[in-house]
Here is the input.
Amino acid sequence: MSWVRIIYCFKRTFLFFLLLAPLSLSAQELPKERKLKAAYLLNFTKYLTWPEGKINDRETAFRLCVNSDPSFFAFMQALVVKYNQSNAERKIALSHVNNATHCHMAYLQTPVEPFLPQITRAVIVLESLDVQQSNSAIRFYSQANKVRFEFDLAQLANVQVKASSELLKLARIAGK
Amino acid sequence: MQKIFSFPFITVLISCAVVLPTFAQSTPSEFAELSLHELFETSIADKSAINKADSRWSLAYNVKSAQFRGYLDGDAKRADSQVLWQGQGEQRTQQNFPILPTVIDQQVHVLSVGYSVNDDWRVHVSLPYISQSTDHISIVPGYENFTIDTDGTGDGVISVSHRLVATTEDVWWFTIGTSLPTGSIDETGDTPRAAGDQQLPYTMQLGSGTYDFPLEFSYQSLGKHDFSLSMSAMVRTGKNDRDYRLGNSYSISGNYNFQMTPTLKPYLGMAYQYRSAIHGQDDEIIVDGAFVYPASITNPHLYGGKKLAQSWGYVGNLASFMPLALNSLNLFIST
Here is the structure.
C-alpha cells in the first residue's frame, strides 16, 4: 500500500477526531504552581512524623483532607492513585474536609470553620499566605518563580507532629 | 462440519515505552514521582529546562512475535498428514486439502505515539509493521515444500481514551478508535495455483481493507497486588475492494501482577476471545471444480472461533537506570 493511501486514510479519520476535540478540551488544565503544591503534599507525608498510634489505631490509611476547587481535588486524587500504587504499606485516603470524620493533614484553598472536629488535630496546610485560617502549620508562598513553604513550629508541636531536619532545611520558619 | 484451523503455538510480546521530554505541563503520575528536592528546584514558569515532569507525549514500541502450527478439528488435534489430501486414491473432502500451511510465523512491530490532552483524555496513533512467512507442503509437483513471505505496514489506528473514574483504589478507562485500511490486501506470491505470482490468502495479507472500530472498557485496581480486567471489541464495517470483511472480534481478559521488587513486576494473564468468520470471499484465491478451496486458509468459513490464551511475563520499570526517560520494558509470553 502506498504512502499516498496511508496519508489519505489518516486525513479522512482526522476529521472525525476533530469533532471530539472540543469535548476533550472541556476539562481545564491545572496551573503548574498548584500541581507542584499537590506534589509537595505527598512529600510532606513522608517527612512528617505523627505520634505513635495516631495513624495505626484502626486503619493503615493516612487521611488527607482537601478543601479546594474540583480541578485541584481531581489532580490530587490522581497523584494519590499513583502514590498508592507504589506505597502499598501506607496508603493515603483522600477526601473533602467536609466529608471526613478525621484528618491527619488538611489542605485548604479557602478557609473553613476553625473548630471543625475533623481538623482540630490535623496539620493544616494553606494554599497561600492569602488564606485566612487560624491554626495553620504550613503555608505555601511563591518566591523567584518557585513554590516555597513556611512552617509554624509551634502549631506543629500543638498537633504533636515532628518535621524531619531535611524538610526543615527547605522551609522558612515563621516568626524567625 | 467442524472447523479445521491452525492454532497459536506461542506468542512473545516485548514492549517498551518512552516518555518524551517536552516543555508542556505534565501528567499526575509524573508529578507523583518528584522528590522533595526536585520539587524545590522546579520553577513555576519553567519553559526552558527539560524536566521529567513536563511530558505530555509518549512513545511506545511493541514487538509481538507469534507462531501458529498444528490443526484442530473442533477440540481434537489433527496431524498435518491427516489434513493434507494425498491425491488420487484418497477421497477429497471439505476437511482435506492439496496444499497445507504447516507453520505461520508473524512478527509485528507497533510504533505508537500518545498525547495526554489532560488528566482524563489521551489520544494515541499507532502504525504496525508486519512481517510474516508461511511454510507449506503440497502434492503439487515442484511445490512439495515452499514458503511465502509478505511484509509491510498494517492497519493504522487512531484512538481516544477517556478516564471515567479514578479513585485511590481503582481506575476505569474507555477507549474508542478507528482502524484505517492502510495495510495492503493485494499481496501476491508464487503459489501452486498457477505459474508466477498470484493473490495470496487472507492470512498473508497485511490489512483488513475496511474502516474498523476498536473499543475497550478497562478496569484496574491499584496497589501492591494489581488486578485489571478489560473488555474489548473490534467492530468491522462494510466490505473491502476484494468483496470481503474480516470477522468481528470480542475479548475479555484479566491480568494480575504484583510488585516483587521496586523495578520488577511478575505478570499473569488470561484472555478469552471470540472471532466471527470472514464475511464474503476473495474470488481470486479459489479454484474451479467441486472443491474450490485449495488450502484451508483460502476458505473464509474456516476462520474465527473461540480462543483461550494464558500469558505470563515481567513488567520492568527502567526509569532509574535510563537517563532518557525510558519508562518501562515489558516481556509477555502466551500460549
Observations:
- Chain B has one domain: 4-20+55-334.
- The longest helix of chain B spans residues 36-41.
